[in-house]
Amino acid sequence: MKVLEAKFVKDFCKMCDDGYSMGWHERNGGNLSYRIKHEEAESIKDDLNGFGDWKPIGTTVPNLAGECFLVTGSGKYFANIKADPESNIGIISVDDKGENYKVLWGLKNNARPTSELPTHLMNHEVKKQSTDGKYRVIYHAHPVNLIALTFVLPLDDKTFTRELWETMTECPVIFPSGVGVVPWMVPGGRDIALATVEKMKEYDVAVWAHHGLFASGEDFDLTFGLMHTVEKASEVLVKILSMTDRRRQTITSDDFRNLAKDFNITIPEKFLK
Ligand code: 2HA
Ligand code: ZN
Fold first, then answer.
1. For the chain, what are the domain ranges?
2. Are 123 and 145 in contact (CB under 8 A)?
């Protein structure tokens, strides 16, 4: 089968286009990666080219040795992916030490994988281990309201988690472990990747202060839905904070405990003051 005929490639392109339509991907903002299943890689193997050069990832991910990923390209615009996937996204494989990658398809004209490749792969490594291989998607976007909140809320996990949970009843059901917050850091390198991974060990969502959001999930729908929910909650919170600094009522800690019981979810007590 041709790469462009594979369902996971079509779904990947659709998610990029949906994110662009939401306004989360100005210019070359944001990036997406997907850990390809063995049977999916097998189904397109005749359309892959194994002769490229190995290039350094910029970090070491031994638990991803031999894995293949579909990734967005560095400097590429989400707006252009639907019309020309081969120039803007690509399939890479990781070597047997987890130190180098090579391009097997796409990223035409020597384009490179996303500048956030170290963060993506290190997050994949952590999530692959902690979810027994279930999580396959890492998504980074620049949603407006979430970014705005990083200028007014204290940059700690508890404040962000509680404030976002209280805006919409379904939030704790959709991100029950909460939200991690990474302070402002230089993007693109190993240091911000390490800081993000520390948060991703505990959460499925990590805020990058004054920059954007990372989300991780099992498949494209769940990961996009997570990004969407966090951004919608952020929009509600921006509206509340724009109206008043005093709320008449909100969802209480006991409300969250009751919700957790009925929805069969575990909510960390540290977020229920
Ligand atoms: O330009 O979003 O964080 C891509 C990015 C870098
Ligand atoms: Zn970014």
1. 1-142, 143-273
2. no
| Residue 108 pLDDT exceeds 90 | yes
Region 143-273: CATH code: 3.40.225.10
**pLDDT bracket for residue 50 (50, 70, 90):** confident
Residue 269: the pLDDT is 96
Report the C-alpha gap between 105 and 134 in whole angstroms.
Answer: 24
123 CA from centroid of ligand 1 (Å): 16
Asked if 1-142 and 143-273 have one fold, the answer is yes
Among the listed residues 116, 163, 166, 231, the single catalytic one is: 116
The per-residue pLDDT for 189 is 87
Record the pTM. Answer: 0.97
Q: Which architecture, in CATH terms, is 1-142?
A: 3-Layer(aba) Sandwich (3.40)
The dihedral over CA atoms of 101, 106, 107, 109, expressed in degrees to the nearest 10, equals 120
Predicted pLDDT of residue 273: 80
Ligand 1 atom nearest the C-alpha of 28 is: 1
- What is the Å distance from ligand 1's center to 115 Cα? 7
Helical spans, DSSP H, in the chain: 7-21, 38-43, 85-88, 117-130, 144-149, 157-165, 171-174, 190-200, 220-243, 253-263
pLDDT above 90 for 243: yes
- 116 in catalytic set: yes
